[in-house]
Amino acid sequence: MEISICKKYLDSTERTDTIKCIGRVSKVQGLLIESRGPQAIIGEICRIVAPKGRGQIRAEVVGLRNEIVQLMAYEETDGIEVGDRVVALGSRLEVPVSEKLMGRVLDAFGNPIDDKGDISSDCLYPALASPPDPLKRKRITRRISTGVRAIDGLLAVGKGQRLGIFSGSGVGKSSLLGMIARNTTADVNVVALIGERGREAPDFIEKDLGPEGLARSVLVVTPSNSPPLARLRGAYVATAIAEYFRDQGKDVMLLFDSVTRFARAMREIGLASGEPPAQRGFPPSMFDSMPKLLERSGTSDKGSITGFYTVLVDGDDMDEPVADTVRGILDGHIVLSRDLAQSYHYPAIDVLQSISRLAPSVSGPASKMAAGEIRRTMAVYARAEDLINVGAYHQGSNPEIDYAITKHNQIENFLIQDIDEPSTLEETLSLMSEITGVDIPEEEMADNNEKLLTAAGGVIKKIKPQKTTAAEQLPAADSVMALNSVASLFSSLPAASAL
Ligand SMILES: Nc1ncnc2c1ncn2[C@@H]1O[C@H](COP(=O)(O)OP(=O)(O)O)[C@@H](O)[C@H]1O
Ligand SMILES: [Mg+2]
């Protein structure tokens, strides 16, 4: 009898979680805090009780080594001492989500920083989540309008597509994101300003977004002076908020500025926690985390997150590790050119260097043909530009170049767009129709154009016979050949339903 009571007692003490949830700080080195205990999982939030410092400091478990728990603080670490208590809270980072988030500005943990009232909600979304099941993702067949002519016309974007915006600093990435936020037809914008300069957030909100843009956006802001873990978590919190709206069946636009700063925060954390540097100092965990973050956008079985992620390319080096990794994961890249920006050609999109991998599946045959023709004309002009500029090209030597010269200004005017000048998809495609003479039917101009690929029934025609000047004599045979080759390309495409 006594033995059985004793055994019961021993069993229950074994099961009871007594001291395991509290640990003690054993070392603080730079960003990294080590403690003996508590028992916790990676990503779990802990509270460090530092009576001589600021009281309670939130930290997250980033590594486990024997009994040592490695933590990184969300806040400044002043005042932490060896022996301070570390209490595991039993959960990972979660964000309260609801419609109340619209028009609000949040910090890296989803707390409002705009003094516009409470956003608490019973619905919590985990900041760290898995991407949707690939087999449950809807195929991307509908296009979304960004309101930027160069993108909608020549780099058609699908609902749920993810693209990178690549450029050096000061070429117009943030301004382009602002333009998209203001003019897109998406239901909600989630804007993540990760690791940018502190003054950029108010600038972005007032100048680029404006009150009407802000009303349909949620912003998550973690400036460059916040600890690296906060920058990292800001990225996850913004993505979680986008996931919430996607689960409500909405078409969300996630505007992420910038992935490079996210990767650099990853590097600071990786190196501090003792990871070996791999490429250019980036630890292996950066290459592992990047796809995990970027794959969370896209379509699910309910709604879509269209993602624009900016990437800073130093010295226009597109092969540096972050740019290279991001380019490999995303479904397209938009390259901004310093030359264009310097000649006040804004948005400074280098169309010929940029690609939208899904453009063929989301745009109709006539729009595709018009886009193809404009690109081709631009390419011909770009090849001959040096000759033209030094006056070495003589009109009449090459009909293609002559044609490209006559179209050059019209195309430039189409591509240059003021930051506060909206352009609907219909306006964009009508202008392209005017430039190329390709008849773009109305059904291709609609935003929700699921039946696009079959819309034109394979018949693509040029509406207005191109009024050609002497310099513009594209031989008839050439033009027919070009049209036929594009038309045959479309006829070989499977119908939309079969795609
Ligand atoms: N569409 C535009 N129209 C006019 N000026 C622009 C435009 N886009 C960028 N700029 C100019 O370029 C500067 C830097 O742009 P920004 O978007 O902050 O670049 P990045 O984010 O690439 O560093 C802006 O302050 C502005 O002067
Ligand atoms: Mg910027």
Task: Provide a quick synopsis of the model.
This protein is α/β, with parallel strands linked by helices. The protein contains 15 helices and 19 strands.
Your description of this structure?
There is one protein chain. This protein has 499 residues and is an alpha/beta fold. Strands 8, 12, 13, 14, 15, 16, 17, 18 and 19 form a nine-stranded mixed sheet that branches. The protein has a six-stranded antiparallel barrel with strand order 1-2-5-4-3-6. The chain is elongated. The termini are far apart. The structure holds adenosine-5'-diphosphate (ADP) and magnesium ion (MG).
- Say how many strands there are: 19
As residue ranges, the low-confidence spans are 449-460, 463-499
Bound small molecules, deduplicated: adenosine-5'-diphosphate, magnesium ion
Major sheet: 9 strands, mixed
Number of contiguous helices = 15
Which range best describes the helical content: under 10%, 10-25%, 25-40%, 40-55%, 55-70% or over 70%?
25-40%
Cα shape: elongated
- Amount of beta strand: 15-25%
| SS class | alpha/beta
Mean pLDDT: 84
Rg estimate, integer Å: 27 Å
State the end-to-end CA separation: 73 Å
Which key terms come to mind for this protein?
binds adenosine-5'-diphosphate; 20% strand; elongated; alpha/beta; binds magnesium ion; disordered C terminus; 37% helix; 6-stranded antiparallel β-barrel; 15 helices; 499 residues
What is the element layout, followed by pairings?
Layout: H1 2-15, E1 22-29, E2 32-36, E3 44-50, E4 55-65, E5 68-73, E6 85-92, E7 94-96, E8 105-106, E9 124-126, E10 143-144, H2 149-154, E11 157-158, E12 162-167, H3 173-183, E13 188-194, H4 200-215, E14 217-222, H5 228-247, E15 251-257, H6 259-272, H7 284-294, E16 298-299, E17 304-312, H8 321-329, E18 332-335, H9 338-342, E19 355-356, H10 359-362, H11 365-389, H12 399-415, H13 425-436, H14 452-455, H15 476-491
Helix pairs in contact: 3-4, 5-6, 6-7, 7-8, 11-12, 11-13, 12-13
Bound molecules: adenosine-5'-diphosphate (ADP) and magnesium ion (MG).
Magnesium ion is lined by residues 173-174, 196, 257.
